[in-house]
Automatic annotation (TrEMBL):
It catalyses: di-trans,octa-cis-undecaprenyl diphospho-N-acetyl-alpha-D-muramoyl-L-alanyl-D-glutamyl-meso-2,6-diaminopimeloyl-D-alanyl-D-alanine + UDP-N-acetyl-alpha-D-glucosamine = di-trans,octa-cis-undecaprenyl diphospho-[N-acetyl-alpha-D-glucosaminyl-(1->4)]-N-acetyl-alpha-D-muramoyl-L-alanyl-D-glutamyl-meso-2,6-diaminopimeloyl-D-alanyl-D-alanine + UDP + H(+). Cell wall formation. Catalyzes the transfer of a GlcNAc subunit on undecaprenyl-pyrophosphoryl-MurNAc-pentapeptide (lipid intermediate I) to form undecaprenyl-pyrophosphoryl-MurNAc-(pentapeptide)GlcNAc (lipid intermediate II). Residues 196-346 form the Glycosyl transferase family 28 C-terminal domain. It comes from Roseburia intestinalis XB6B4. It comes from the Bacteria. This is UDP-N-acetylglucosamine--N-acetylmuramyl-(pentapeptide) pyrophosphoryl-undecaprenol N-acetylglucosamine transferase. Pathway: Cell wall biogenesis; peptidoglycan biosynthesis.
Length: 364
């Protein structure tokens, strides 16, 4: 006999995609949402990175047409608006089918038609902006949102006062419970007396960081064990048997163990990545993506963390064997000061804060 459906269960549609940074905060919220009795659905692009990540969570996934909105000339600028319009129509149909109480968006271009559709369907929508200044996708979506969450105090001045809420970024709770011994065994390290450096170059890796680390490896391995997450297709087979050096394309469940073992982290300055470092109280060196290769958001993120005493910042244009080694030695020398600054930060329990906003919105 079929069980009767519980129509009292609250429903939420989550959206966001294009990069892992637009998905992992949504995943971080899911356990708390389930604890609050929410039935979760997800709207993303047909084949974006979000599809695999969300399906791994056992959450119903709906793909829509998605176009990129660019600030520069590209022939696709003429066709992509039609993809966005199609995605908007698809989103309206999906929201009418799912009947959510609230929509939560982590940004990325696929989220724009979903948030616009939420306004059309009179469903409250909450947006989260990770970077210090809002990206183009969120700028387009903000007028249709009821609340806009952000990570940095500086971001509040860029947002409508009545909508802005300083929440911080949701952190996957499993990152806080890693086992250093598991990581030591996984990496086949032998010398327990050496401190460990973890390099995180983003989901696709960073050629300049990979090159700098490998160029400095003979010097680093005199004093440190090195875990290098170098990105897909970036393994160097000539270094496979190097004692004290462990390279991986990426880490999934093992990442929490690697963080637990790491005494220093070298990272790009994506907002989610640096918020994880703050939550973990890990001394770090940030190498933001250059302004020439981005809209400059990572530089702003990194400078905010530097001004608060959380991070040492090394601009990509200044990256060399010499400057990187100097940065590593400086951070290890000042390690306790960085940890103390992070301990004294006003970082919030972002998951509780955001869940509170979602609950408030879902009652309206």
């Amino acid at each position: 006999m079929l069980q009767e459906r519980d129509y009292s269960m609250k429903k939420i549609v989550m959206t966001g995609g294009g990069t892992a940074g637009h998905v992992t905060p949504n995943i971080a919220l899911m356990p708390a949402l389930r604890n609050e009795g929410f039935e979760i659905s997800y709207i993303g692009s047909y084949e974006g990175i979000e599809k695999r990540l969300i399906e791994e969570q056992g959450v119903p996934y709906y793909g829509i047409s998605s176009g990129k909105l660019r600030r520069y000339f590209d022939p696709k600028n003429f066709s992509d608006p039609f993809k966005v319009l199609k995605g908007y129509a698809q989103s309206i149909r999906l929201l009418k089918k799912i009947k959510p109480d609230v929509v939560f968006s982590k940004g990325g271009f696929v989220s724009v038609p979903v948030v616009l559709a939420a306004k059309h369907c009179k469903v409250p929508a909450i947006i989260h902006e990770s970077d210090l200044t809002p990206g183009l996708a969120n700028k387009l979506a903000i007028p249709s949102a009821t609340k806009v969450c952000c990570n940095f105090p500086e971001t509040l001045s860029y947002l409508p006062k009545e909508k802005a809420v300083l929440t911080g970024s949701p952190i996957r709770q499993e990152l806080l419970t890693g086992n250093a011994d598991f990581a030591f065994s996984l990496c086949h390290f032998k010398d327990h007396s050496k401190q460990t450096i973890l390099i995180v170059g983003g989901s696709s890796g960073s050629r300049v960081i990979n090159t700098a680390i490998r160029g400095l490896l003979p010097e680093l391995l005199k004093n440190y064990n090195v875990i290098h997450l170098c990105g897909k297709g970036n393994l160097d087979d000539t270094l496979t048997a190097t004692d004290g050096y462990a390279q991986f394309e990426y880490a999934n469940k093992e990442l929490s163990d690697m963080f637990a073992l790491a005494d220093l982290v070298i990272s790009r300055a994506g907002a989610n990545a640096i918020c994880e470092l703050l939550a973990l109280r890990k001394p770090n060196i940030l190498i933001p993506l250059s302004a020439a290769a981005s809209r400059g958001d990572q530089i702003l993120n990194a400078n905010s963390f530097r001004s608060q005493g959380f991070s040492y910042v090394l601009e990509e244009e200044e990256l060399s064997n010499t400057t990187l080694l100097e940065a590593i030695e400086h951070v290890f020398h000042k390690k306790e000061a960085y940890i103390e600054a992070m301990e004294n930060s006003n970082s919030r329990n972002s998951i509780d804060t955001i869940i509170g906003l979602i609950l408030d919105a879902s009652k309206k």
